[in-house]
């Protein structure tokens, strides 16, 4: 049995998320179906992270195993031929059996893109969050630094999420100016369910003056999701890169 790693990009608008769901179309399910057709056997695909419904990726990583011999270049071509046009396998390579897309990952980078101009570029409308509120850049920069380091992010995790620990480390939280608005980028050792969207929702409320920065230490100490802002829309979030 040989193990293979693939890097993929997808627009998540039309999907229930990465993970296979009983009542929805998923990224994982589409890739597994395509592989089963080509390899002539069921093939489980393990992803580096479970992106939510409507969330995108330009650097998602996954692995699968098969005993079927194939030419990598031809399999890559066949996969992309069978997959929907909003899912693409960018690269495919053979790896050691010890590699695991999820457990071998050291860091992940997520990007959340906010479009502020009154008119949204129609080519970007499905991958940005349109928010026309006025934000104080200095305040956003100051608040972003507060999230860096190792913290208990329980206040930014949806209640009922089954995890062993809500402690995570964010190595970098950065605001990046872009045409039409800006992006918020987070690099960490792992992210909890809807954590980035919950962080962004609170950040934007503070940045526009709806919430006061003094709320943050209260949130961290309380570990109460109900005190934080609503999650930012899924459309603006993208898994940018997984680092090994």
Number of helices: 5
Query: How helix-rich are the residues, as a percent range?
Result: 10-25%
Beta-strand residue percentage: 25-35%
Overall mean pLDDT score? 96
> What is the domain tally?
2
What is the CATH topology of the largest domain?
Alpha-Beta Plaits
Structural class: alpha+beta
- How many beta-strand elements? 10
**CATH architecture annotation name of the largest domain:** 2-Layer Sandwich
Radius of gyration: 19 Å
Could you say which overall geometry the principal axes of the C-alpha atoms support? globular
| CATH top level class name of the largest domain | Alpha Beta
Q: Stretches where pLDDT falls below 50 for ≥5 residues? A: none
Biggest sheet descriptor:
10 strands, mixed
User: In sequence order, what are the helices and strands, one letter per element?
Assistant: EHEEHEEEHEEEHHE
The termini sit apart by: 22 Å
